[in-house]
Amino acid sequence: MLLTYACGIRDTAGEATAELTAAPTEPVVILPTEEPTAAPTEEPTAEPTAAPTEEPTAEPTATPTPEPTATPTPEPTATPTPEPTATPTPEPTATPTPKPTATPTPKPTATPTPKPTATPTPKPTATPTPKPTATPTPKPTATPKPTATPTPAPTADANGYVNTAEYRLSYTVGIDDLGRTLTDGSANNTERTDRQVGIFYFLWIGFHGTALYDNSAIVARDPNALKSESAWMNAGGGGVSAFHFWGKPMFGYYPSSEKWVMRKHVQMLTDAGVDFLCFDTTNAFTYTSNALALMSILKEYQDQGWDVPKVCFYTNSSSGATINKIIKEIYKAKPQYESLWYNWDGKPMIVGDTSDSSISEEAKAFFRIKRSVWPNSTRYADGFPWMEFGRLMTSQAVYGLNGRKEVVNVSVAQHNATCTFSYTAWYGANDRTRSWHNGKNDKSENAYFYGYNFEEQFNWAIKQDPEMIFITGWNEWIAQRQSVVDTNRPIRFIDNADPNCSRDIEPMEGGYGDNYYMQMISLIRKYKGAPGSTGRDVRTIDLAGSFGQWNDVTAYYRDYVGDTIKRNNTVFESKVDNTNRNDIVEMKVCEDADNVYFFVKTAAAITDPGTNDFDNKGWMTLYISTDLNTGWKGYDYVINYRAPENGETSVGRLATSDSYSVTECGRAQIRIADDLLMLSVPKTVLGLGESADFAFKWADNNTVGDVFSFYKNGDAAPIGRAMYRYGS
Question: In the listed set 528, 563, 580, which residue is the last one of a domain according to the structure?
């Protein structure tokens, strides 16, 4: 994020004293982009860089005047659903049903007996009666359509299978690399649909240049690189204005335009329970093509029935011009994405400078504009914070109009003391890093693995119980190198510098891995609650029988259709992945007194296992955890880790360590037909009692022994190290 503010100095108590300044700006050279007239800048500090604009508009003043009454809050509801009653259901009540009561029935009593029996009597029964039943009957059948979207068409396939069970979102469990357990949220067994979680999402990687620089790699190669400009350049660093990664993402150095990565993000954030993405357009770049590409994937999965995050935008520099461009290029140009707009108080929400007179009347009428607010600038009651400095974890960090507690921000780390994270990363300053808690930075080795700062804030936010918690952030990853202002600290980055002085939750390669992602899921569930597991289904499955036995099994789980695609991207580095093979789409589980039965369906016919390298790659492998504690990464058993033969397959016990080691402990029965697979395993082999409680994962074509391969290769259901829960 290229932020437009300046910071003051720390006082003797150690708290940040921040104030807006009117210091002269210094030019920053930006690499050529698709929008060359809108050169971005990093966060201005004591000598801020010039805020970019895409259109020549007046820059907001240093301390904009709030307009708290400009956008009245009509209702105290968190996310009102527009026109919920505008369904076609009233139509059946407008039928000609009253007609039978208006028939000439009285005539027989008013005329002589012989006549009505001869002619008038047949007429009311022959003509009016069919009309009310013939016309309205088909119309009510259209009402159930919205609820039928996630359910497959009720026609059995050649093997007799068609799902008839209702799908309920299946919450997951797991254990991270620190041994912290991700529960299914049943401790807070009331799912609070009136609470929302958003996350700052960045579309800018690769947009402002594609030269690859990684601060962590540069310093690891040569610690002396930090001593001078020439030493930095000699160690492979980039010059002033060049964008640098602070570390390597788990998915590699990717551009924001890569759709393979977008699909992964959509799955991960949907599974995490994130309600909306707020796109960073604070520096007048809208990144329209990237935003629309991501929306197309969100819409694809929404149409499959997934509750994907919705979207909104955060503007600041040249706010009015940026808002006007966004409404023109996205909201008005792409009405097909209306179901993805994140609404607040009944309108699509956008964040911006409400004092900017250039905001069009059309935009004012269309949007619910929340006030952009900076961590070291004026607080606005109707503000939408993306980070806090001095207001952090105080009553001033809760925003809302008319007594409402609308939003609290939770950020991973804050450069509150210096407004320059590199000063703390490399030169001994004392910003609040990822490791900050209990009033100080934890200096112990790998303290940043734990997310102390993030969790401390999130728990505080939960106690305030706002309608929204907004997280900073998901995938910022890069920062622009700034010119030297202190020769004793020559290498200067504002927003991100190294793993500890950065603020992304998206998993990284090495370092904290996916700890923050798992931690975020757990905290979201703590805030919003969760429905818990799918429960049990007790019945016996005959593996020699029809797959139709599975039709109404209620322990039913789904995975994303179309999430296994080839990867081929050469931006920053070559990234090619052809492990897409079996696309897992449906799973079911049931049990009887002696066995547990598993079912899986793929999008196309299951591939022949004979071509698979079982020593290195899994083939339709089933992982089981019986205790979420021991075993490899929490998994205790692995089924089908060797090629099946003669209707049987392998069951192995995983070693109780981080090293992947498996010892065969039994056999399972297996049957495959086209795109369907079912297997049966004795409970005694899995160490289960009469009533089974366990967690499981199906995976295909993943690297054996690499838990992060469940994110990156082949298919895994669910994605990553998480597992579906079966049982009570």
Answer: 528
User: How confident is the model at residue 95, as a pLDDT?
Assistant: 36
Please write the tens of the pLDDT for every residue from 431-464: 999 999 999 999 999 999 999 999 999 999 999 9
What 8-state DSSP symbol labels residue 166?
P
* 553 and 656 housed in the same domain: yes
User: Rounded distance, CA 726 to CA 538, Å?
Assistant: 12
| Cis, bond preceding 718 (omega within 30 deg of 0) | yes
| Candidate ranges 94-108, 541-555, 652-666; pick with highest mean pLDDT | 541-555
602 and 483 within one domain: no
Q: Give the CA count within 13 Å in the CB-facing half-sphere of 103.
A: 21
CATH code at position 459: 3.20.20
Which range, of 187-191, 239-243, 400-404, averages the lowest pLDDT? 187-191
Quote the domain boundaries for residue 632.
Answer: 172-177+533-726
The mean pLDDT value for 469-497 works out to 98
| Mean pLDDT of the region 60-82 | 36
Q: Is the dihedral of CA 67, 70, 74, 79 positive or negative?
A: negative
Please list, in sequence order, all residues whose beta carbon lies within 8 angstroms of the beta carbon of residue 562, skipping any fewer than 6 positions away.
263, 300, 583, 603
User: Tokens representing 509?
Assistant: 């390669």
Residue 259 lies inside a defined structural domain of this protein: yes
CA–CA distance, 139 with 90 (Å, rounded to integer): 10
Cβ neighbors of 611 (< 8 A, separation 6 or more) are none
Structure tokens at 487: 């020769």
The answer to whether position 102 is within a domain reads: no
Same domain, 233 and 341: yes
Task: Give me the number of domains the chain comprises.
Answer: 2
Q: Is residue 165 part of a domain?
A: no
